[in-house]
Write a structure and sequence with these properties.
mainly alpha, single chain, MetI-like fold, about 0% strand, about 300 residues
């Protein structure tokens, strides 16, 4: 009898898990779609050396300008390089720039925002005026100016995009801290003698994490788009290393001759990656902010 009960219990647990997953997908379709696309691009970036059908920088003159077909799904460029392979390898650049630049902006911006919101006074005044100075410049123009000054390298593009992201995190964190620090549990922590560092780390920061997660997701989409723009202008990775923006810039000379496939591959890649992170960010915002949750979700 016990031998029959165990398989039944396991089967019920599996059914319950499947039902839970289905219910979550029905309640959060945007999160599922955006998350699936983000995971797909992350897997492509990680596995590019193993799943790319050809060497992305190998020149094969005999295969130049081949339209999409069975051998080359997205065709080849004028040097015979496989477009699909370059798109796959280019994802490593775009996603790494997104992650690293967002990490730079997140760390610096959150630190400034926490200190400014909690300490107030002179530090808050000076820090926020510096943030205002950064906000005075259009984000993409500022990224181009910083990269031009530092030099056309992928590392400099990461730094430039990270600097551009700092004001958003600083402003967001400061606003959240100003809201949280007046609550009763913060006053109670001060009353019992908790140090300012402990109050910020243990009591204030956990209450602003949700907003930062959403901002980080949306900032990653901007970072991917900014990297593509910098690469298009020649300020990102240098040839022959594959990059979505650089490949579009390189292939535009062939558009009048109807060699469209050289631009379509990286163009679709940029669109789907930016769409995925924006879609996921909007879904996370609705899921993590109780004020934005729809009734019945």
């Amino acid at each position: 009898m016990s031998g029959t009960t165990v398989p039944l219990a396991i089967g019920r647990q599996r059914t319950s898990r499947v039902s839970t997953v289905r219910a979550f997908a029905r309640r959060n379709p945007r999160m599922v779609i955006g998350g699936t696309l983000v995971v797909a691009w992350l897997l492509i970036a990680v596995l590019a050396p193993f799943i790319a059908p050809f060497d992305p920088i190998k020149v094969v003159p005999s295969d130049s300008l081949i339209p999409p077909g069975a051998k080359h799904w997205l065709g080849t460029d004028d040097l015979g390089r496989d477009v699909l392979s370059r798109v796959m390898w280019g994802s490593r650049v775009s996603l790494s720039v997104g992650v690293i630049s967002v990490s730079i902006g997140l760390f610096v911006g959150v630190t400034i925002g926490l200190l400014s919101g909690y300490l107030g006074g002179t530090f808050d005044l000076i820090a926020m005026r510096g943030i205002d100075a950064l906000l005075a410049f259009p984000a993409l123009i500022l990224a181009i100016a910083i990269t031009s000054a530092l030099g056309p390298q992928i590392q400099n593009a990461m730094i430039a995009i990270g600097i551009v992201a700092i004001p958003a995190y600083a402003r967001l964190t400061r606003g959240q801290v100003l809201t949280v620090r007046a609550r009763d549990f913060i006053v109670a922590a001060r009353t019992i003698g908790a140090s300012p560092l402990r109050i910020v780390i243990r009591h204030i920061f956990p209450n602003v994490v949700n907003a930062l997660i959403v901002q980080a997701t949306l900032s990653t989409a901007f970072a991917i788009l900014a990297e593509a723009a910098l690469s298009f202008l020649g300020l990102g990775p240098q040839p022959p290393y594959p990059s979505w923006g650089q490949d579009i810039a390189y292939s535009q000379r062939y558009l009048p001759n109807l060699k469209w496939w050289m631009s379509v591959g990286p163009g679709i890649a940029i669109f789907t990656a930016v769409f995925a992170f924006n879609f996921l960010g909007d879904a996370l915002r609705d899921a993590l902010d109780p004020r934005l949750r729809r009734s019945g979700t």
